Amino acid sequence: MDVLAGHLATYLDHLRVERGLSGHTVAAYRRDLERYLSALRAAGATQPSHVTPEHVRAFATSLRSGEDGRRPLAAASVARTIVAVRGLHRFWLSERVTATDPAIDIAPPQPGRRLPKALDVAQVARLLEAAAGPDPTPADLCDAALLELLYGTGARISEVVTLDVDDLTRALSDDTSGLRLLGKGDKERVVPLGSYARAAVDAWLVRGRPALAGRSGRATPALLLNARGARLSRQSAFNRIRTVASKAGMAVEISPHTLRHSYATHLLDGGADIRVVQELLGHASVATTQLYTLVTVEHLREVYLAAHPRAR
What's 225's DSSP letter? Predict the structure, then answer.
């Protein structure tokens, strides 16, 4: 391990242990910062003390242009990477690894506002109905449970695939207790579990999961399983959702986060208080939740333009 890699490892340990960031977030930091360190080595900066503001600016430029031989990044991805670089240099300065912070004046680009994509209620119903179908296989029942949990709780995909059977057994046994989710930074929250999600999970546990659980050759506490009987991964869940969307004949791109966006948008459309939606989604700041109010306003505008005789 070279000097830069050793100092990066220390910083990542700091993010995980002292700041309590999730494994997925730390992995994202690692990817961005390993690209940065590669650029520094190519420029001859092999020690943290060798890095200058010119090195950081050149790296930021290469992210947008692809001059480092990798694909150019969108403004939002460039901003995320520069934030990671600035955090690394702040840490090195605080730990006295370096005497100055060469990234202090390097500002990340401001990405344009991108509204979350959401399905309408009819599209969600169509997707959920296609998941299990009239004569469901065990895999179909797993898909139905996955989709109902995502839309019925607004959970992130990482929160759903890490659920164990015991988590749902507790929630199903008591209508008032809700479902406990472990979110970003290991922050726990409790969300209501509606009747449709309860029915889908119950069907999966009784008629689907037992058929797949024995395929791995060893017991697993995981709630959702893949075809081999092991815990369903995030990527496998994404692929399963795309398969169900194709089965439903839906032309729009659908991801696990699409259902989270739809959950929030439909709650606000139905009159839910934004602070309540913030708690249900597990957002640290209400400003993040306010993005969904823009979605509902945009929908109202589209309806107005389409329906009012003097709108145009």
Answer: B
Average pLDDT in the chain: 88
Candidates 55, 209, 260, 266; catalytic one: 260
Contact 35, 67 (CB under 8 A): no
Catalytic residue among 7, 86, 156, 231: 156
pLDDT digits (tens, 9 = 90+) for 135-172: 899 999 999 999 999 999 999 999 999 999 999 988 88
Distance CA 237, CA 147 (A): 9
Task: Pick the catalytic residue from 117, 184, 189, 234.
Answer: 184
Indicate the helix (H) or strand (E) that contains 188: strand 188-191
Tally: H helices and E strands in the chain: 14, 2
Element at 180 (helix H, strand E) = strand 179-182
Question: Residue 179: is it exposed, middle or buried by C-beta count within 10 angstroms (0-12/13-18/19+)?
Answer: buried
Measure CA 53 to chain center. Answer: 32
Catalytic choice (16, 30, 257, 299):
257
Residues sharing a CB contact under 8 Å with residue 101, sequence separation 6 or more, in sequence order: 89, 90, 92, 93
> Does the active-site annotation cover 117?
no
**Sequence letter at residue 36:** Y
**Of residues 89, 231, 261, 283, which has the active-site annotation?**
283
Domains of the chain with bracketed CATH: 3-94 (1.10.150), 121-253 (1.10.443.10)
Neighbouring residues of 235: CB distance < 8 A, sequence distance ≥ 6: none
pLDDT by residue (tens digit) across 186-226? Answer: 788 989 999 999 999 999 999 999 999 988 778 899 999 99
pTM: 0.65
| Residue 257 bears catalytic tag | yes
Catalytic (active site) residue 283: yes
